[in-house]
Amino acid sequence: MRLSSLLSLATNVAAVTISVSKDEGKDASPLQYGLMFEDINFSGDGGIYAELIRNRAFQGDEFMPSTLDPWSAFGPADISLFNLTTPLSSALPTSVTVKGRARGEIGISNPGYWGIDVLPQTYKGSFWVFGDYQGDFKAALRSASSGEILASVNIPSHSNTRGWTKHEFALDSDIAAGYKTNFTLTFVAESSHQVLNFNLISLFPPTYNNRENGLRQDLMQSLKDLNPSFMRIPGGNNLQGKLPGSRWKWNETIGDLIDRPGRTGAWRYHNTDGLGLIEYMLWCQDLKVEPVLILWAGLYLDGTVIPENELDFYVQDALHEIEFLTGDASTEYGAKRVALGYATPFEINFVGVGNEDHFSSGMTSYNEYRFRMFFDAISEKYPHLQILSSTIELDPIPKGAVLDYHDYGNPDGAVRNFTLFDDQDASNKILVGEYGVARNNGNEVLWKDHRKRPWWIASVAEAVFYLGVERNPDTVYGCAFAPLLQNIESYQWNPNLITFNANTSATVRSTSFHVMELLSNNRFTTLLPVENSDEYDPGFWVAGLNDDLNTYVWKGAVYNTTTEQEFEINFPGSQQGAVAELTVLTAPDPFSENIFGEPDLVDTRRTRLEAGQKGFAFVLPQWSVAVLSWQYRSTK
Ligand code: AHR
């Protein structure tokens, strides 16, 4: 769509005239747009958690307690898993034994999470060894096809047979050599009897804010660009666990990495839990977002429910988790956090009791005792906390409980939900903790149709839904798209907001990303009433004032019409000659999707628009999302 045609006033549909009033505004919720994160689609391990070595500690999955996959032997060596009588730790009992078959350079090789991006930068690594060796180890990044060394470092051994020793190294690369590479860790066998054992072999690129054990810089930048206000963590189904015993246990995700056993996540692959509870908090701090901490609440995904007389253990566990994060050094669990080096308590204002408890036969027990037991105990000890029910089907709903609404419907349904929150009782606010159009209008589920989607029709429909959220700040805190991230090499769910692989310059921002980015970066502080000449549909809109920026903002979307739609908009005080900025998102057609490895199809046009006699006049094409912002006074 050419800009000139967007701005043309010649159209076959009467203009919708919209007058924004400055009176009777509502305080707009400070949360509005947020993120939902759980480890799905290798979005944590192999994703935002920057560790480059896949299966660094020889852990397993639901079928095997441990595996060598994807490691292979380097040089004339045999490799095998062993549980030595002296393990590295009780959490990481299995190590790899490397046994030479001849003299020479031998070791192990790892392909990373389907590649390791070699860039001119310094990688930080470490590994643990057990066994007698006096020479140097060599850590190297090599071409996967030729084996050529791209970067390497020698590390003098201090390994011995008395116990496990940690070796740390910095690996400098001078070149950008792509991501089709392997990491090798080798040593020189002086005889065919040489044997060494290795465990917890780790390699990190520079991380966001240079944090130890930190996060991938490029993906964090994408999240920053979304301008989020909250992050719901750590799930999702992954928090719940599939089978009895497999829940996410906060206390096993903290402390030294050698003390984190990890677990098979609900999405069937091993979670190292290197991205643990503290790392989640630091992540929220780095993004400057409010954590919405979801607590395990007695329901496994297979439908197993903890009976009432056994639930108190889990309620206490949740209280310990909150105390660990927020308590000072005088509290039992706060002191444990301080001992880990985090003296300042983290700030938590929102906690959620479970995830989607209306599924898997969870609703009855949730209504009868599970929600109430958590709610009563948490509100008694932490009265300032906003406590989320994991479902809007909760009955009875205690005063003040916040309802976590999830929806993975179809595009038409998202548009109909523009008014969903209009009549909501404000005594129980809603947080839309998971939202994403995951079906087509025939209502077929799309999440098995991988690689593609979201597609533009869905993204415009999501925009309409978000506008419905924005026009109800007194009843809805905000909303988050889910799932957030997808590694294109191995995934369980579609659509996702951002798709990536090991190549840090290949990340794809979906059509839905662009919509959320535009709406989230144009915030109101006050929602303002509007007078319309017309009903909503096919145009949908909302308007407000950003007091901090002295800016009036109108946001709109046009869904499912065969014609373009003309608008004439007047803000309070906008006279003829006033100049606003109009941003319009379009795509070639409703089925356009941003496919990995192909060009971004979303067209973003920004233009200066001068008010005429009828106000700010412009035309939006069908299937478009737009923001008009008018700064009535400079902020200087
Ligand atoms: O976002 C994917 C899954 O959808 C979440 O884990 C779960 O909460 C929901 O059903």
UniProtKB/TrEMBL annotation:
<dbReference type="InterPro" id="IPR055235">
    <property type="entry name" value="ASD1_cat"/>
</dbReference>
<protein>
    <recommendedName>
        <fullName>non-reducing end alpha-L-arabinofuranosidase</fullName>
        <ecNumber>3.2.1.55</ecNumber>
    </recommendedName>
</protein>
<keyword id="KW-0378">Hydrolase</keyword>
<dbReference type="InterPro" id="IPR013780">
    <property type="entry name" value="Glyco_hydro_b"/>
</dbReference>
<feature type="signal peptide">
    <location>
        <begin position="1"/>
        <end position="15"/>
    </location>
</feature>
<comment type="pathway">
    <text>Glycan metabolism; L-arabinan degradation.</text>
</comment>
<feature type="domain" description="Alpha-L-arabinofuranosidase C-terminal">
    <location>
        <begin position="433"/>
        <end position="624"/>
    </location>
</feature>
<dbReference type="Pfam" id="PF06964">
    <property type="entry name" value="Alpha-L-AF_C"/>
</dbReference>
<dbReference type="GO" id="GO:0046556">
    <property type="term" value="F:alpha-L-arabinofuranosidase activity"/>
</dbReference>
<dbReference type="InterPro" id="IPR010720">
    <property type="entry name" value="Alpha-L-AF_C"/>
</dbReference>
<dbReference type="GO" id="GO:0046373">
    <property type="term" value="P:L-arabinose metabolic process"/>
</dbReference>
<dbReference type="Pfam" id="PF22848">
    <property type="entry name" value="ASD1_dom"/>
</dbReference>
<dbReference type="InterPro" id="IPR017853">
    <property type="entry name" value="GH"/>
</dbReference>
<keyword id="KW-0732">Signal</keyword>
<keyword id="KW-0325">Glycoprotein</keyword>
<comment type="similarity">
    <text>Belongs to the glycosyl hydrolase 51 family.</text>
</comment>
<dbReference type="InterPro" id="IPR051563">
    <property type="entry name" value="Glycosyl_Hydrolase_51"/>
</dbReference>
